[in-house]
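Lab notes, practical 5.
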Amino acid sequence: MASQKLTAFERTVLTGLARKAGLAGAVLEAWADLPADSVQSARSLIDAAQLGVTEECATQELLERSALLGLVETTPAGFKPRDGVHERFLHLAFAFYAVEHYRSSVHRDATEAQVVLTKPPRPSVLEQKLSVLGWRTTELEPTEHAFHNMVRAARRRVVVMTTFLDYTGEAWLQDLLSYVTPGVERMLILRSLEDNTRKDYPFGFDALCRCSRHRAFGYSTTRFRA
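Output from the prediction step:
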């Protein structure tokens, strides 16, 4: 029976790419099914691994890091495995999946934060600019499920802080708060809440008050004259 222990080289690769263990596992598993001498790009690998287009930049960084570690080598058309390394991809993928599983399901930090980058609704200047750069903006994943998962996971309180809350935002926030587990505290931090005559007053707050139970706090930005 072949040894399942990691070699010194594999341990070096695992350590060097551990920050993106889940992505590394998915990319290497997909690449293991492709010809050993084939040249791949970040785009071709995320397609092979059935990943979202938003992972393209991270995959490119992963490939560049892999080249520095000696796992792959660069070519004018992209990246290819170094001689004799392609056969290790499945073994490495399994190790990366194990790291990701430990990190996400076994290890528990004292505190945990999840960051979700949102995009404005269509049509938007952001999507126009991304399209010019070659991004397929129709494939940008929606973020609603990520926000819903965050508030569902809350055990003590959900805190929402925003500098702007119009009626559209109020409808979005109302929907978001509907996913909060009963008994979990809801807290809002809004700008200029103390004066409804200000232009930056969160007008969506009034409608929200009629529908939700929550604690609200206001803050204002002080402007200094030069």
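Observations recorded by the TA: Residues 53 and 139 are 7 Å apart (CA to CA). The chain has nine helices and five strands.
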